[in-house]
Amino acid sequence: MTHPSLLDRQDIRQHVRHLRRGLSAEQQERAADLLAEHAINFAPVSAAEKIALFLSVDGELNTRPLIAKLWQQKKQVFLPVLHPFSPGHLLFLRYTPETPLAPNKLRIPEPPLDIRQMATLDELDVMMVPLVAFDRDGQRLGMGGGFYDRTLQHWQQHGFLPVGLAHDCQLVEKLPVAEWDVPLPAVLTPSKLWQW
Ligand SMILES: Nc1nc2c(c(=O)[nH]1)N(C=O)[C@@H](CNc1ccc(C(=O)N[C@@H](CCC(=O)O)C(=O)O)cc1)CN2
Ligand SMILES: Nc1ncnc2c1ncn2[C@@H]1O[C@H](COP(=O)(O)OP(=O)(O)OP(=O)(O)O)[C@@H](O)[C@H]1O
Fold first, then answer.
1. Which residue has the CA at smallest separation from atom 31 of ligand 1?
2. Do 92 and 99 meet the contact criterion of CB atoms below 8 Å apart?
3. To test the ligand 1 pocket, which listed residue (143, 151, 165) has its Cβ within 8 A of the most ligand atoms?
4. pTM score of the predicted model
5. Is the ipTM of this complex over 0.90?
6. Which residue's CA is the nearest one to ligand 2's atom 3?
7. Torsions phi, psi for 153 (to 5 deg)
């Protein structure tokens, strides 16, 4: 394979972010409802007690309908919080209907950093992962911070299942792979469950 150039990854990011931001409100709403329905019927999610999710920005598939369903089913939901002094790392904090949210420095809402509400990676059963693009081999490209690449290192040892969430239009033929990229074992879109 040719050496993946930075430009390739940046070009794909720009292109797919533009595509997903171009979805209409109706398309977004339908996609989110379909996805929520698929996700709660996916066996690892049905069996899970603690699930990490994310709050959507930038045309990402809206996770709110899924979060509402998981709460109804009395599952515990956790959100990523930027680590206060370890750059590029995430912590996962409990999110309930009562949790106050405040925008972080990337302007994504997050729960307050309260150690009592934190889950370790070992405690999570499923981690729903945001992505900009994925390919037919399960490779994933994110927004560029390397946050989830770090979080997903050694996921097998932690025992949680990473599941990418994406619109169908975020599938690309082949992503350039960097040495630190961690392929996903599953991606859920409104129309399909991909598994590797
Ligand atoms: N919904 C969601 N939450 C997430 C992620 C994500 O991809 N989606 N992340 C996955 O890793 C982490 C945040 N990663 C991010 C990496 C880069 C940018 C970014 O470049 N944002 C702006 C500029 C930031 C600003 O407004 O100052 C941009 O869109 O250009 C945003 C988030 C944790 N939380
Ligand atoms: N496991 C890791 N350890 C150290 N640095 C890493 C690791 N993973 C990624 N990085 C660094 O993070 C930077 C961003 O990586 P990359 O462009 O692959 O992020 P991404 O997958 O798009 O973002 P994200 O995972 O946050 O959604 C890279 O410059 C890389 O050096």
1. 106
2. no
3. 143
4. 0.95
5. yes
6. 150
7. -60, 135
List Cα–Cα distances, 127 to 25, 29, 78, 132, 174, in angstroms. Answer: 26, 22, 9, 16, 24
Check if 135 has its Cβ closer than 6 Å to any atom of ligand 1.
Answer: no
Name the residue of 53, 95, 101, 106 whose CB sits within 8 Å of the most ligand 1 atoms, as the mutation to test its pocket. Answer: 106
Q: Whose CA is nearest to atom 27 of ligand 2?
A: 142
Cα-to-centroid distance, 115 and ligand 2 (Å): 25
Tens of pLDDT, residue by residue, the chain (196 residues): 455 565 699 999 999 999 999 999 999 999 999 999 999 999 999 999 999 999 999 999 999 999 999 999 999 999 999 999 999 999 999 999 999 999 999 999 999 999 999 999 999 999 999 999 999 999 999 999 999 999 999 999 999 999 999 999 999 999 999 999 999 999 999 999 999 9
Question: Who contacts 59 (Cβ-Cβ below 8 Å, separation ≥6)?
Answer: 17, 20, 21, 22, 23, 28, 167
